[in-house]
Amino acid sequence: MSALELTLRRTVMAPLYLDIISPDNLSGKRWREIGDYIVWEGNRKVKLRSLFKIEGEAEANLQDTLIEIVGDMSRARRIGYRMSGGVIRVRGHGGLYVGESMRGGRIIVDGDAGPWLGANMAGGTIEVSGSAGDHVAAASLGTDKGMTGGTIIVKGDSGSQTGAWMHSGLIRVSGSSGMFPGAHMRGGTIHIIGDCSGRAGANMRGGKIVLSGKLPTVLPSFTFEDIRSQTRVDKDNVEGPFYVFSGDNNEGGDGRLFIKKASNPQLKWCEKFLEV
Amino acid sequence: MGLEESTFRDVVCTVCGCCCDHLEVTVKEDTVVKVKNACAMSTSKLLNYMNERIMKPMIRRRGRLSGCSYRDAVDAAAKILLKSRSPLLYGWSLTSCEAVEVGVELAEEVGGFIDNTTSTCHGPTILGVHEIGESSSTLGEVRHRADLIIYWGCNPIHAHPLHMSRYTLLSKGRFRKSRSERTLIVVDVRRTDTAKMADMFIQVEPNKDYELISALRAAVRGDEIEQDEVGGVPTDLIEEVAEMLISCDFGALFFGLGLTMSPGKSENVDAALSLVRDLNSKTKFVIIPMRGHFNVNGANNVMTWMTGYPYAIDFTRGFPYYNPGETSAVDLLARGECDSALIVASDPVSNFPYKATCNLTSIPLITIDPHITPTVLCSDVVFPSALVGIETSGTVYRMDGVPLVARKLVEPPRNIRSDIEILRDILRRYRNLKRLGR
Amino acid sequence: MSREIAILNGTVFDPTNRIFGERMDIFVKDGKIVGSASSKAQRIDASGKVVMPGGVDIHSHIAGSKVNSGRLLRPEDHRKDVEVKTPTTHSGVGYSIPSTYTTGYRYAKMGYTTVFEPATPPLKTRHTHEELDSTPIIDKGCFPLFGNNWFVMEYLRDGKVEECATYVAWMLKALKGYAIKIVDPGGVEVWGWGKFLRHLDEKVTHFNVTPREIIRGLCKVNRLLNLPHPIHVHTNNLGNPGNYTTTIETMDTVRDMANGSKPIVHITHVQFTGFSGSSWLNLGSGAPEIAEYVNKHGHVSVDLGQIIFGDTTTMTADGPFQYFLHMLTDNKWVNMDVEVETGSGIVPFQYKRSNYVNAIQWGIGLELALLIKDPWRVFMTTDHPNGGPFTYYPRVIAWLMSRKARERTLSKINRTARRRLTLPSIDREYTLEEIATITRAAPARSLGLKNKGHFGLGADADIAVYDINPSDMDVLRRKPAKLRRAFGQACYTIKNGAVVVRDGKILKSPFGRTFYVESQTKPEIESNLLRSIETRFRDYYTVGIENYQINESYLRYPAKVRCEAEI
Amino acid sequence: MPKIQVTLLTGRSLGQGRAKEQGKLSELYLESVACCEVQHEDLQNIGLEYGNNIRVTSNHGSVVVKVVAPTQPLPRGVVFMPYSIWATQILGSDTEGTGMPTYKCIPCTVEPAIDEKIMSIEELTKKFPRKRSRS
Questions:
Q1: What is the pLDDT of residue B34?
Q2: Is residue B205, in this structure, part of any structural domain at all?
Q3: How many helices (H) does chain D have, and how many strands (E)?
Q4: CB pairs under 8 A between A and B
C-alpha cells in the first residue's frame, strides 16, 4: 500500500491544530487538494502545503490509507482526531492529543508523544515507541468518561493520570508511570511494567491495574484481598505473584489493583490479613 | 484631592483574598499618612506604594530600557501584538474586574491566550471543582455557625493575617460567640504559627496529604484502615479526627497552596472536595480555598462570564477554548509556543520556573505594572499604571466571591494611567493598525 | 439624528391593545412606537409575516454568582457549543449556561428583548449587575432574595411589618433590585445547618417564624410598597412528590389579601412544584388541581418551568433541593450558602424521555399551560437553565400551538407516564395571540413594565418580526418544525428602535437598560431604619454597610421605576 | 564537600509579603527572600552556621542563598524558601498537565557555598536568555 507522506518544512513556534490529518479526511484525496487544506498555526490560517512537503498518494480505501508525518510535531495537536481506520505514522514527536476520540485504525509514533495521548479514545490502536505525557487516555475536562475502547501501548514512560476516567480498553506502559494511574477508573485494564510514583487507582470504581514494578504505597482506602500467582492482561498471562487489593472504598468501588510482590517488599505488612 | 487631611473609612484592602473592608486610611496631600485596622502586609503596601514606582513609559532600544512617550509605547505594544501568532496575556490578579474585561476583549481581538495567576495558585482547585463541585459558603456563614475549623496546608497568620479574627476562629458570630465555642484543627508539614493556635495539630509528611485525606474519607465512611499509619499520622488519630468531623454542627475546611502546589495538585484538591462532599451526608460542612492574590477571584469570575472559562483561555481560533496544562501560561512557555507576551499587574519572571521564564524573556514582552519588578527589567515595552484601590477604583472579589469596590484614595502620579485606559488604548491602536493593514 | 423605522403590512399581534392579527403598519421613532413616520424612515416589508412586541422573559437565570458557578462547574457543557467571533459579535460559549455575550445574542435572535434574572443573593448582587452589564442587547433586571433573610424573619417574627417594608424598600434601592423573590422560605436558613424544613407551618430553627408567616409578611410588604411586580415565590418542598398541595396552600395563604383582579402572588416554575402522588413510583401530575385553583382565583399567576429532554444544568437558591438532586443522581454538586440571606446549589442534570419521572414532569408543564384558561396569568418559561436552556423556547411554543408536535413527543416518552398524564386528552392549541400574550404582553404586565410588551404610542420600540404567515396556521400546526424555526430565528429584532437582528444574524449589539425599583418611603422612616440596623448589620455581615450598597452609577444604563410606598 | 538530601518547600512568609510591598529592588526584599530556612541539626550535618551561604540544587537548577533559622519549626530533612526569583531558579516547568508547576515537595540537595556570592535581582534577570530575533 502506498503512503501519503507529509514532511514538515520549517520549525513551528506556535500551537498547530492538525485535527484535519486523519485517514478519514485524507483518504482518496489528491495531494493538490490536501495541500489546500487550511489549518491554524497560532492565530493564523495556513495551507497545509506551506507547512508540509506533500508526497505520495493517499489510498482511496480508508482502511488502506497510510499517512506518514515526518518532523517534530511537539507543538501540534490532535493528529488523528476521530479517525476510524487506516494508519498514521509519525516519525518524530507526536504532539499533544494524538488520536483524540479515535474510533479505529492505528497510530504509530516513532518518538515521544505529548500529554492527552488517546484522550476519549473509543477504538483502534496507538503505539508510542518513546514516552508519553500526562493524562494518557484521559476524559475531557469536567466529564466522567475517558477511554472507552481500543489499545494504547507506550514503550517508554507515561506521565501522571494515565488512564484516568477510563471505562474500557487496554493501556500498557513498558516503562514507569507518574502518579495516579487509573484515577477515577470505571473499567478496562492498565498494565505498568516499570515503577509507578504512587496513588494507583485513586477513586477507581472498577477495572484492573497491574503494576509489575515498584509502588511506594497503597492508598489507605483499598482493602487487601489475596495473593495471586498470575493474572491476565488482554490475552497474555502476567506472572506474579501479586498482592491483590480492591477499592477505592471511598467511592464504593470494586476495582482491582495487582501489585507484584517481588518488587514491593514494603507491602509485606498486608500479608498479616491473609486467612491461614 | 486637597491639602487637607482626610480619612477614608470602610476602605477595601488590596493585598490578599480576604479583601478586608474595614480599613481606615488617612490621606494628606495625596499621600497616605496613616493606616488603621490593617494587617502588616496591608499597612506596608499602603505606606510604601510609592517605592520603586515606574514614572514613565519605556521602550527597549539597543538593549536598554529608556523613557518614551505614551503614544509610542502604545504603538509599539500594538505592533508587537499585531505581528504575533500566539501572544500570551498574563497576570490580572492585582487589577480590577473592569480592567480584566478589557483584557479579555483584547485577547479575543488579538487571537491570543489569556491566563491569570490562578494557574499558579488555585488553578488545581478549579480543576478539582470541574470534577467534584464544591460545598461552600461565604465567610460570614463560617463566622456565625462553624464550631469546627480546619486549616489544611495554609498558614493564614502569615498569608491572610486577619482571616481568623474577621471570619473564623476568633470572630464573634450569631451562634458562636467566642474562641471557646470553636475547635481548630491545623494540618501542615510544618508547625506553623497558625498550627500553634490549634486545638489539634496534625503534622503530615511532605507530599502525603492525598493519602491522609483518603484515610480520613475512609474513616468518615466507617471503613477500617489496614495500615498503622498514613503520611506519618497514626491511624488512631485519623479515626479520632474523623469522629470530630462527623460530630460537629458546622465544619469549615480552608485549604491553601499546600494542596495545590504539591505533586498531585488537582487530585489533592479533588480529595479534599470529596471529603467535604461526603461529610455533608453526616453533618453540615463547607470548603473554601484560601485565595491569595487580591482580586484573583475577580479575574476568574470575569473570564468565566465572558468566555465560560476561568483562566487559561485560548482565543487563537476565534472562540474560547480551555485546557489548563495545554493553554496555561507555564505550559505554553515551557513548550515555547508563545511569540509575544503582555503582562498586566504580575511578576512572572520572579514566580515562574526557570525554563518557562527563559522562554518568556526571549520573546517580545510588554508589561503594565506600577512598580519596577524583575519582569519589568526584562521587558521591551513598559507602561506604568495606577494602583487599583489606592489611585483608581474598581470592583474586586473576595475569596468567597463577595464583590466589593476598592476605592480611589489619592491621585496617581502625573501622567500615570489606569490599567483600563492603557488596555483600551492598546486595543484601539491595534484595531486601527489592523484596519490599515498594519 | 432621528432614527425612524416603518414596519409595513405585517400581521400584528398586540394583545394589550386588543390587536389580534390585524394587517397594519408599525412606526418607530427615537426608540419609541409612534403613530407615523416620515419618508426617510427605514422601510421593512413585513407582509406575510407576524409582528409582535419583543419577548419578555420573567424568569431566566442568566447572571450572577450561581450562574457563574454553574459555568465554572461545567467546561464540558461549553465545549460542545461555541460561538466564533464575527465582525459584529464577540465569541463565547453556549448550551445550558451561555457566556454573557452569547446570552444576549441568543435571546435577541429569538426576538426577545427583556429578561429578568429571578434570584440574586443580595450580598452578591453587585456581581449580578456586572454580568447583566456585560449582557448585550436585552433590557434586564434582577430580583433579590428575601425569603430567608435574617432581618426579614426577625421583623416578621416580631410582627413589625412596616419596619420590614422599610427595610425591603431600602434593600431594593441599595441593591438596584426589581422585585421580592422568595425561595423555599425558611428552608434555606435551616439548610445552613444541613437540615430540612417540610411544612408551611414548621418553625424555622432559631427564628421562631414559619414559611407561611414569611410569605404572608412579604406579601403585605409588597402591597405596602406598591411594588410593580407581585411577590415572586418558589415554594417550599420543591421537587418532592405530592408537593402540589404545598403549592396550592402557598397560593391560598395570601388569598385574603387579594386586591381587585391584579395577581398578588406569582408562583414560579410551577411544574417543579406540581407533583402529585406520594413517592417517585406513583408520582403524577398535580397540574389539573393547580390549574383549577388558578382558574378560580385571580390573585395568582404562574410561570411554567417547562422541561426539555436533554442535558442541562440545574441551579437554584434552593440549596437543600439541590443537595437532594445530587444524592439522587450522583452528579457533581456545588453548594454556596450566603450569610444572613440565602443559599444556592448547582447540579448538572439530564432529562430523559424514557425516565418515568422526567416524562411526568414534561407533561405537568404543558398540562398547566393548556389547562389554565387565562393566558394573562400563565407565562412561558423553562426556568432557564433548570428545565432546559432558553434556546428551546421555540420548541415549547410548538408544543403549545400544535397538538401534532405534542403527540410526536408523547409517542416517545415513558409509556407508564403517558398513560397517567391528562395531556394526551387535551385538544387545546394555542393561537398566535395567546402565544403573544404568554411570551410578552402578560409577563410585561405582571412586571409592571408600562412600556413593554405592547405597541401603544410611546411604548419602547422592542419588536420581533417572525416569518410566519398567519393564514398558513393550519399547515404550520401540522409542520411544527417550521414553527420552531420561525420562532427560533426572528426575521427582524428591533431593540429600542434599532434593528439588531436580521434573518437570525446579529447586526449590532448595543447594551440595554437595567430596571430597578425605588419605592419611596417617608424619609424619616428610612433614616430611623438605617440607624436601627447599623449595629446589627455589622454583627450579621462580614462587609460594611457602605460597601454593601450599589450606586446607580455602577450600572451601565440604569432605569429607575418609581413607586409610592404607603408608609 | 558535605551534602544533604532535603525536601524543599517554597511558600509565602509574612516577611516576604511585607518586603514585597517595599519594592523588589530593596535591600529588605533581598534580605527576606534570598534565603533558605534549614533546620538546626540538618545544618550541623553540613558544618554550617546560620548566615552562611548555601547552594540548593534540584534536577532543574541550582542557586546560592543565605541559610537562615526557620521562623516556624521544620521537620528534619525539610527546608523552606520564600517565593522569589531565587527559589524559581531551581523549579521545574512540568505541571502534570494542570498548569501548576511543582512549588512544594521538591527533592533537592543542600551544600555549603560559603565563598560563593548571592546574585542580585539585576544579575539574575541578566542570566535569562536574550531576545530571539523578531521575525
A1: 96
A2: yes
A3: 5, 6
A4: 110
Candidates C69, C71, C541; nearest CB to B308:
C71
Q: Which residue has the cell 501622567?
A: B415
**Nearest residue in A to C71, CA atom:** A142
Å from C74 to nearest chain A CA? 6
Burial class (CB in 10 A: 0-12, 13-18, 19+), C450: middle
Residue B38 resides in a domain? yes
* A-chain residue closest to B230, CA distance: A220
The CATH number given to C55-447 is: 3.20.20
Residues of chain B with pLDDT under 50: 1
Which residue among A17, A116, A180 places its CB closest to the CB of B267?
Answer: A180
- Supply the CATH number for residue B192's domain: 3.40.228.10
Query: Between chains, do B402 and C134 touch, taking CB under 8 Å as contact?
Result: no
Range of the domain at B11: 6-47
d(CA C253, CA C373): 22
State whether B351 and D99 contact (CB < 8 Å): no
Tell whether the model's pLDDT for residue D135 goes beyond 70: no
Residues C418, C202: contact at Cβ < 8 Å? no
- Which chains lie within 8 Å of chain B at 3 or more CB pairs, if any? A, C, D
C107 touches C122 (CB < 8 A): no
**Touching chains D and C? (3+ Cβ pairs < 8 A):** no
Q: Which residue of A has its CA nearest to C80?
A: A140
Query: ipTM of the assembly?
Result: 0.96
How far apart CA C144 and CA C142 sit, in angstroms, is 6
Task: Let me know whether B136 and B256 are in one domain.
Answer: yes
Q: Report whether B110 contacts A43 (CB < 8 A).
A: yes
- Kindly report whether the global pTM for this prediction surpasses the value 0.80: yes
DSSP category for residue C438: I
The DSSP bridge pattern shows strands B340-344 and B365-369 to be parallel
* Class of the domain covering D4-125: mainly beta
- The answer, yes or no, to whether residue A225 has pLDDT greater than 90, is yes
Helix (H, G, I), strand (E, B) or coil at A238: strand
Q: B366, B380 in Cβ contact below 8 A?
A: yes
Instruction: Scan for cell 515521544, then name that residue.
Output: A112
A and B adjacent (3 or more CB pairs under 8 angstroms) = yes
**Would you say D105 and B258 are in contact if contact means Cβ atoms under 8 Å apart?**
no
Give the whole-number percent of chain C exceeding pLDDT 90. Answer: 97
Query: Within this chain, do residues B315 and B198 fall inside the same structural domain, yes or no?
Result: no
Q: Is the pLDDT of residue C10 over 60?
A: yes
Give a yes or no: residue B1 inside a domain.
no
D11/C567 Cα distance (integer angstroms): 57
Q: For B6-31, what is each residue's pLDDT tens digit?
A: 999 999 999 999 999 999 999 998 89
- Maximum alpha-carbon separation in chain C: 69
- The secondary structure of chain C in percent helix, strand, coil, rounded to multiples of 5, reads 40, 25, 35
Q: Check residue C213 and give its pLDDT.
A: 97
CB contact under 8 A, D97 and A159: yes
pLDDT in tens, D35-91: 999 999 999 999 999 999 999 999 999 999 999 999 999 999 999 999 999 999 999
pLDDT above 80 for D133: no
Q: What is the mean pLDDT of residues C404-424?
A: 96
Cβ–Cβ below 8 Å for D97 and A179: no
B-C contacts (CB, under 8 Å): 182
| Cβ distance of B353 and D88 shorter than 8 Å | yes
